[in-house]
Model the fold of this input.
Amino acid sequence: MITIALSKGRIFEETLPLLKAAGIMPLEDPESSRKLILPTNRADVRLIIVRASDVPTYVQYGAADLGVAGKDVLNEHGGTGLYQPLDLNIARCRMMVAVRDDFDYSLAVRQGARLRVATKYVQTAREHFAAKGVHVDLIKLYGSMELAPLVGLSDAIVDLVSSGNTLKANHLRAVEEISAISSRLIVNQASLKLKRTVIQPMLDAFERAIVA
Ligand code: PRT
Ligand code: MG
Done:
C-alpha cells in the first residue's frame, strides 16, 4: 500500500492533475467527504487528508510514503527524514515582509530600530532578518497575520502573498520579498528504498506531467 498525504484546498486541487497523469484518481472529494482516508481507483494507493503544516510530519515518520507540501511549510519543518525529488511548481506564491502603508520600513531598518514582527513562519523570519542584520522580536501567530500591524501587535508581518489583494484590502504593503514559494513532492526516505518499484514510476509520471 502507498499512502499519499495531501491538504485540502489549493494543494489538493492542483495535485489532482498530476495524480491523474500517474493513473491515480481519488474515489471521493475531500471537500464533501468527511473521510480522512480516501480510496483511489488503485487498490494499492490511498490518500490521507491532513493540515498543510502536518504533511511533512506524516511523511517523516512513514505514516505516509509521499506527500505534497509548500516550501514555506518545509522550511519551518526542517526537512528531516524527507527526500524532496520534485518541485511540482503548484500553489505558487511569495514569502514577503509587509507593513502598514504609513510605516516607514526602510527608515526603521536604517535607524537600527528593533522591529516587532508577527508571523506563522518564525524560522523563515528569523533566518531572513538575521541575514540582514536586523534585530527583531518575533511574535508567533497561527493565522490572519495581516491583522497584527493594524491593531499595534507588530510593526511588520512575514506572510505569503499571491494576488496581493489581502494586503491591499488591509492597507498593508509588501516591502521585501524573502523567497518564491511552490509546493514540493516529499518522499519518506525508507519508503523510497523499500517500495522503489512502485514509487519510482509515480515520480517519473509526475515529472513528465510537470514538464508538460
Ligand atoms: O489553512 P490552514 O491553516 O489549514 O493551512 P495553510 O494556510 O497552511 O493551508 P492552505 O491550504 O491555505 O495553503 C497550503 C499552501 O498553499 C501553503 O503552504 C503555501 O505553500 C501555498 N499558498 C499559495 C498559499 C497561498 N498561495 C496564499 N495566498 N498559502 C496561503 N495563502 C494565503 C496567505 O497566507 C494570505 O493570508 O492567502 C492570503 C494572501 O492571498 P492574496 O491572494 O490575497 O495575496
Ligand atoms: Mg490557509
The helical segments are 10-21, 55-60, 71-77, 105-110, 122-132, 165-169, 189-194, 196-211. The chain has a mean pLDDT of 97.
